[in-house]
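Consider one such protein record:
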Amino acid sequence: MEAARAAASGHDFLLVTAERQTQGRGTKGRAWQSPQGNIYLTAAVHRNFLPPERMRLFPLEAGLALWETAASFLPPAQRNGLRLKWPNDLLWNQRKVAGMLMESTGDYLLIGAGINIGLAPEVSDGGTASAALIEAGADPECGLPLAKDFFEHLRKALTLALRQTLLEEWKLKALWEVPLRLRDRPGQSAVLPVDINSEGHLRVRFNDGHEEWLVSEYLT
Protein backbone atom coordinates (compact mmCIF):
# COMPACT_ATOMS: atom_id res chain seq x y z
CA MET A 1 0.00 0.00 0.00
CA GLU A 2 1.41 3.36 -1.04
CA ALA A 3 0.31 5.09 2.17
CA ALA A 4 2.05 2.49 4.34
CA ARG A 5 5.28 2.97 2.41
CA ALA A 6 4.95 6.76 2.65
CA ALA A 7 4.42 6.55 6.42
CA ALA A 8 7.92 5.08 6.74
CA SER A 9 9.31 8.48 5.72
CA GLY A 10 8.79 9.72 9.27
CA HIS A 11 6.18 12.45 8.71
CA ASP A 12 3.54 12.97 11.41
CA PHE A 13 0.75 13.31 8.83
CA LEU A 14 0.61 12.14 5.22
CA LEU A 15 -2.09 12.01 2.56
CA VAL A 16 -2.26 9.75 -0.49
CA THR A 17 -5.12 10.15 -2.98
CA ALA A 18 -6.25 8.26 -6.05
CA GLU A 19 -8.91 8.77 -8.69
CA ARG A 20 -9.19 5.00 -9.18
CA GLN A 21 -8.14 1.87 -7.28
CA THR A 22 -7.64 -1.66 -8.53
CA GLN A 23 -7.43 -3.40 -5.15
CA GLY A 24 -9.74 -1.37 -2.90
CA ARG A 25 -10.72 -3.02 0.40
CA GLY A 26 -13.69 -2.47 2.65
CA THR A 27 -14.60 -3.79 6.10
CA LYS A 28 -13.42 -7.34 6.86
CA GLY A 29 -11.58 -7.57 3.56
CA ARG A 30 -14.62 -7.05 1.37
CA ALA A 31 -13.94 -5.73 -2.12
CA TRP A 32 -14.43 -1.97 -2.43
CA GLN A 33 -15.46 -0.83 -5.89
CA SER A 34 -13.26 2.09 -6.91
CA PRO A 35 -14.23 3.38 -10.36
CA GLN A 36 -13.03 6.59 -11.99
CA GLY A 37 -15.19 9.56 -11.10
CA ASN A 38 -14.89 9.35 -7.31
CA ILE A 39 -12.05 10.04 -4.86
CA TYR A 40 -10.10 7.58 -2.72
CA LEU A 41 -7.70 8.59 0.02
CA THR A 42 -5.54 7.25 2.81
CA ALA A 43 -4.34 9.51 5.61
CA ALA A 44 -1.44 8.35 7.77
CA VAL A 45 -1.36 9.71 11.33
CA HIS A 46 1.48 9.10 13.78
CA ARG A 47 0.38 7.36 16.97
CA ASN A 48 1.79 10.24 19.03
CA PHE A 49 -1.38 12.14 18.12
CA LEU A 50 -3.69 9.28 19.12
CA PRO A 51 -3.23 8.35 22.79
CA PRO A 52 -5.57 5.57 24.00
CA GLU A 53 -8.10 7.94 25.51
CA ARG A 54 -8.47 9.71 22.16
CA MET A 55 -8.28 6.60 20.01
CA ARG A 56 -11.44 5.26 21.62
CA LEU A 57 -13.47 8.05 20.05
CA PHE A 58 -11.38 8.66 16.94
CA PRO A 59 -13.67 6.64 14.61
CA LEU A 60 -16.48 9.01 15.57
CA GLU A 61 -14.22 12.06 15.33
CA ALA A 62 -13.12 11.06 11.83
CA GLY A 63 -16.72 10.46 10.78
CA LEU A 64 -17.78 13.87 12.04
CA ALA A 65 -14.84 15.47 10.22
CA LEU A 66 -15.95 13.78 7.01
CA TRP A 67 -19.54 14.97 7.50
CA GLU A 68 -18.41 18.55 8.10
CA THR A 69 -16.06 18.51 5.10
CA ALA A 70 -18.57 16.97 2.70
CA ALA A 71 -21.31 19.34 3.88
CA SER A 72 -19.12 22.34 2.99
CA PHE A 73 -19.16 21.18 -0.65
CA LEU A 74 -22.97 21.02 -0.81
CA PRO A 75 -25.56 23.76 -1.17
CA PRO A 76 -26.80 24.69 2.34
CA ALA A 77 -30.32 23.50 1.59
CA GLN A 78 -29.03 19.98 0.82
CA ARG A 79 -26.84 19.41 3.88
CA ASN A 80 -29.57 18.00 6.08
CA GLY A 81 -29.71 14.92 3.85
CA LEU A 82 -26.20 13.95 5.02
CA ARG A 83 -26.21 11.54 7.96
CA LEU A 84 -23.65 9.39 9.77
CA LYS A 85 -24.13 5.66 10.27
CA TRP A 86 -22.11 4.35 13.20
CA PRO A 87 -19.27 4.79 13.44
CA ASN A 88 -18.28 6.74 10.32
CA ASP A 89 -20.18 5.78 7.18
CA LEU A 90 -21.55 8.85 5.42
CA LEU A 91 -25.05 8.60 3.95
CA TRP A 92 -27.08 10.79 1.65
CA ASN A 93 -30.83 10.22 1.96
CA GLN A 94 -30.05 6.87 3.65
CA ARG A 95 -27.73 5.69 0.86
CA LYS A 96 -23.99 5.39 1.33
CA VAL A 97 -21.74 8.04 -0.21
CA ALA A 98 -18.57 7.29 1.75
CA GLY A 99 -17.02 4.54 3.81
CA MET A 100 -13.97 4.51 6.04
CA LEU A 101 -11.49 1.83 7.10
CA MET A 102 -8.80 2.18 9.78
CA GLU A 103 -5.81 -0.07 10.36
CA SER A 104 -2.44 0.15 12.10
CA THR A 105 0.99 -0.19 10.56
CA GLY A 106 4.04 0.36 12.75
CA ASP A 107 3.77 3.74 14.47
CA TYR A 108 0.93 4.92 12.24
CA LEU A 109 -2.80 4.66 11.94
CA LEU A 110 -4.00 4.58 8.34
CA ILE A 111 -7.42 6.08 7.66
CA GLY A 112 -8.74 5.01 4.28
CA ALA A 113 -11.87 6.50 2.75
CA GLY A 114 -13.73 6.08 -0.49
CA ILE A 115 -16.04 8.98 -1.34
CA ASN A 116 -18.59 8.74 -4.15
CA ILE A 117 -18.48 12.05 -5.98
CA GLY A 118 -19.86 11.40 -9.44
CA LEU A 119 -20.65 7.68 -9.47
CA ALA A 120 -22.67 5.42 -7.17
CA PRO A 121 -21.36 1.88 -7.71
CA GLU A 122 -23.94 -0.88 -7.76
CA VAL A 123 -24.06 -2.82 -4.48
CA SER A 124 -24.52 -6.54 -5.07
CA ASP A 125 -23.32 -8.04 -1.76
CA GLY A 126 -26.20 -7.03 0.49
CA GLY A 127 -24.61 -3.82 1.76
CA THR A 128 -26.15 -0.39 2.00
CA ALA A 129 -27.29 1.05 -1.34
CA SER A 130 -24.96 3.73 -2.68
CA ALA A 131 -25.37 7.35 -3.72
CA ALA A 132 -23.08 10.07 -5.11
CA LEU A 133 -22.55 13.59 -3.83
CA ILE A 134 -23.47 15.13 -7.18
CA GLU A 135 -27.04 14.03 -6.38
CA ALA A 136 -26.88 16.47 -3.48
CA GLY A 137 -25.55 19.30 -5.62
CA ALA A 138 -21.78 18.79 -5.32
CA ASP A 139 -19.50 19.83 -8.16
CA PRO A 140 -18.36 16.67 -10.03
CA GLU A 141 -14.78 18.03 -9.91
CA CYS A 142 -14.70 18.50 -6.12
CA GLY A 143 -13.09 15.15 -5.29
CA LEU A 144 -9.47 16.20 -4.78
CA PRO A 145 -10.30 19.47 -2.97
CA LEU A 146 -12.67 17.54 -0.69
CA ALA A 147 -10.01 14.94 0.11
CA LYS A 148 -7.43 17.63 0.90
CA ASP A 149 -9.89 19.55 3.08
CA PHE A 150 -10.83 16.41 5.00
CA PHE A 151 -7.16 15.64 5.63
CA GLU A 152 -6.48 19.20 6.78
CA HIS A 153 -9.55 19.08 9.02
CA LEU A 154 -8.21 15.93 10.71
CA ARG A 155 -4.67 17.24 10.95
CA LYS A 156 -5.74 20.47 12.66
CA ALA A 157 -8.12 18.65 15.01
CA LEU A 158 -5.44 16.20 16.13
CA THR A 159 -3.06 19.00 17.10
CA LEU A 160 -5.71 20.25 19.57
CA ALA A 161 -7.52 18.70 22.51
CA LEU A 162 -10.53 16.53 21.73
CA ARG A 163 -13.68 18.58 21.30
CA GLN A 164 -15.75 18.30 24.48
CA THR A 165 -18.89 18.48 22.36
CA LEU A 166 -17.85 15.65 20.04
CA LEU A 167 -20.45 13.10 21.12
CA GLU A 168 -23.34 15.56 21.07
CA GLU A 169 -22.32 16.86 17.65
CA TRP A 170 -21.98 13.31 16.31
CA LYS A 171 -25.44 12.44 17.64
CA LEU A 172 -26.95 15.43 15.84
CA LYS A 173 -25.50 14.23 12.53
CA ALA A 174 -26.33 10.53 12.96
CA LEU A 175 -29.13 8.42 11.52
CA TRP A 176 -31.37 7.34 14.40
CA GLU A 177 -34.85 6.88 12.98
CA VAL A 178 -34.13 4.03 10.53
CA PRO A 179 -33.74 0.30 11.40
CA LEU A 180 -30.44 -1.29 10.39
CA ARG A 181 -29.22 -4.88 10.07
CA LEU A 182 -26.40 -6.64 11.92
CA ARG A 183 -24.89 -7.87 8.71
CA ASP A 184 -22.37 -10.35 10.09
CA ARG A 185 -24.60 -12.09 12.62
CA PRO A 186 -26.70 -15.15 11.80
CA GLY A 187 -30.10 -14.02 10.63
CA GLN A 188 -28.90 -10.42 10.17
CA SER A 189 -31.14 -9.16 12.97
CA ALA A 190 -32.80 -5.77 12.53
CA VAL A 191 -31.88 -3.18 15.17
CA LEU A 192 -32.72 0.43 15.88
CA PRO A 193 -29.87 2.71 17.05
CA VAL A 194 -30.91 4.46 20.26
CA ASP A 195 -27.83 5.92 21.98
CA ILE A 196 -24.06 6.20 22.10
CA ASN A 197 -21.83 6.23 25.19
CA SER A 198 -18.59 7.94 26.20
CA GLU A 199 -16.57 5.00 24.83
CA GLY A 200 -18.11 5.37 21.38
CA HIS A 201 -20.21 2.19 21.71
CA LEU A 202 -23.64 2.14 20.08
CA ARG A 203 -26.75 1.02 21.93
CA VAL A 204 -29.32 -0.71 19.74
CA ARG A 205 -32.82 -2.07 20.30
CA PHE A 206 -33.89 -5.38 18.79
CA ASN A 207 -37.39 -6.16 17.53
CA ASP A 208 -38.19 -8.06 20.73
CA GLY A 209 -37.43 -4.96 22.79
CA HIS A 210 -34.12 -5.97 24.36
CA GLU A 211 -31.14 -3.66 23.97
CA GLU A 212 -27.40 -4.24 23.55
CA TRP A 213 -24.24 -2.15 23.36
CA LEU A 214 -22.28 -2.72 20.14
CA VAL A 215 -18.50 -2.40 20.31
CA SER A 216 -17.56 -3.51 16.80
CA GLU A 217 -20.23 -4.52 14.30
CA TYR A 218 -21.02 -3.93 10.65
CA LEU A 219 -24.44 -2.33 10.25
CA THR A 220 -26.22 -2.08 6.94
